[in-house]
Design goal:
Elements: E1 5-8, E2 11-15, H1 16-19, H2 22-27, E3 32-35, E4 48-51, H3 63-78, E5 83-87, H4 93-105, H5 110-120, H6 128-147
Parallel strand pairs: 2-5, 3-4, 3-5
Antiparallel strand pairs: 1-2
Helix pairs in contact: 3-4, 4-5, 4-6
Length: 157
């Protein structure tokens, strides 16, 4: 069954087949598609797109995309839009990106962020490498909050 699973008002998660359904994209009001894969297509519907070119491999560096994706989701929500995050099966890569967003912009601990994603889409299961990267990201966000009086964006370089 094709479906986009709603995590928040402005965030959905799916597999590639569902996310490429123009009918679902229109019905759910999606305005940005974050494709967390090297090979999966984008829908043909006219929406914003962001590709995160990683494989579902524990050795891949998904961490370096967490801030960019979280900020893109937040920005889209701020404009009244909604984002679908997807990968081939909608289980590992996309789930990690969604959890990172919830950790950064909803200030949720990793366990709560993951539970929120899993409640929306029961099959989610980030691979061990991505889970370790989420743990590292949680520590990084805690450090930023402590150092920056709640500021969530990294300091300028």
């Amino acid at each position: 069954m094709l479906q986009l699973c709603r995590i928040t008002d402005a965030l959905l998660i799916a597999n590639a087949r569902s996310a490429c359904s123009d009918e679902l994209i229109r019905r759910e009001g999606v305005t940005l598609c974050i494709n967390v894969s090297r090979q999966q297509p984008f829908p043909s519907a006219r929406v914003g797109t962001l590709r995160v070119p990683v494989y579902d491999d524990p050795a891949e560096n998904l961490y370096r995309y967490f801030d960019r994706c979280a900020d893109a989701i937040q920005g889209e929500a701020g404009r009244g839009g909604s984002t679908v995050v997807y990968c081939k099966n909608g289980r590992s890569r996309s789930a990690a990106v969604c959890a990172a967003y919830l950790m950064k912009h909803r200030a949720l601990p990793l366990a709560d962020a993951f539970q929120m994603v899993k409640t929306a889409r029961s099959v989610v299961d980030p691979n061990p490498g991505f889970w370790e990267q989420l743990e590292k990201y949680e520590q990084e966000l805690e450090r930023r909050r402590a150092e920056g009086n709640g500021r969530l964006t990294p300091p300028p370089r």
